[in-house]
Amino acid sequence: MTRTLVISPNWIGDAVMAQPLLQRLKQQHPDRPIDVLAPPSVAPVWRAMIEVDSVLETPFRHRALQLKERWAYARRLRQRGYAAAYVLPNTLKYALIPWLAGIATRVGYKGEMRYGLLNVMHHDDKPARAMVPFYAALAQDPALPLAKVPRPRMQVGADKVAAVCAKTGIALERQLVVFAPGAEFGAAKRWPAAHFAQLAQAILSADPLAQVALLGSPKDREACDEVVAGSGGAGMFNLAGATKLDEAIALIARADAVVANDSGLLHIASALNRPVVALYGPTDPDHAPPFSDIARSMSLRLECSPCKQRECPLGHHNCMNKMGADLVWAELRPIIEV
């Protein structure tokens, strides 16, 4: 049986936004299994997608060429019988793998001048397309106009949700709002911890039995500690760095609402179709919007934004600082009081 290989981006949010590509590939070849080659940090995202048969975790170091190791790994892939490979990262080193593996059809964007390594070459539009259609376009002939694109979708079993709630002490019968205060891109994308704390106070004042869970990586722990301290602590669960990604995905699947910066966890919530309030500062809400049935994208759309910078180049961070907790509460409150 022939198979399809998808080589994952290195970022969680990008992996989620690439999911519609898998839907389109599965529609084209319903009986062809899809494997995803992904970094260990991103692999749990793909395991929550029903189109994926197997997730193969990359053994390569970040930013390292490791040509000898890629050659050895490509030889292993050759045995799996791939008919086509879709290379989502734009780097040359990831395009090497399907070429070395002798996969007949190798699809991707030009990226780092990957002529020859790829034999179905797509070219990025200027201005750049939104991320979901950007990846979904790889499923069709580069010369054709983009067909209608489905929205990202993920799913988590009820047993996994119950297990992680039992582990973390979160009650299944009480309302749960998830906060995602982190953002890997840089500090400029982060809504202030004091604003998150004020929002938590509003939630718990409206419903004293509500639960607020803060998710993120170990790097987000300090900011989440600030949120808990500023909110008073009651009803708060600081789980940043205390949950693995698959557990965080299960908690998001349980959430009644998610409030998040433009981050991987935001896009996971969107793909799980959870109600979301998405907070955008230096990034463009039209470039990577949430797709939930209930979604609010918040941006002050100041003259200086979106600057797409990791740190505020003007030093004031007004795009996030001036987005007060009262503004976000006005969007969140109707969602959780339904």
Automatic annotation (TrEMBL):
Pfam families for this protein: Glyco_transf_9
Please name the Gene3D superfamilies in this protein's record: Glycogen Phosphorylase B
What are the BP-aspect GO terms?
lipopolysaccharide core region biosynthetic process
Q: Give the GO cellular component terms, alphabetically.
A: cytosol
Task: Quote the EC number.
Answer: 2.4.99.24
Which key words tag this protein in UniProt?
Glycosyltransferase, Transferase
| Presence of the UniProt keyword Manganese in the record | no
Q: Does the keyword Transferase apply?
A: yes
Catalysis: reaction(s): an L-alpha-D-Hep-(1->5)-[alpha-Kdo-(2->4)]-alpha-Kdo-(2->6)-lipid A + ADP-L-glycero-beta-D-manno-heptose = an L-alpha-D-Hep-(1->3)-L-alpha-D-Hep-(1->5)-[alpha-Kdo-(2->4)]-alpha-Kdo-(2->6)-lipid A + ADP + H(+)
Q: Which domain of life is it from?
A: Bacteria
The UniProt entry, under PANTHER family, shows: ADP-HEPTOSE--LPS HEPTOSYLTRANSFERASE 2, TETRAACYLDISACCHARIDE 4'-KINASE-RELATED
- Which protein family is named in the record? Belongs to the glycosyltransferase 9 family.
Name of the molecule in the record: lipopolysaccharide heptosyltransferase II
State the species of origin: Massilia eurypsychrophila
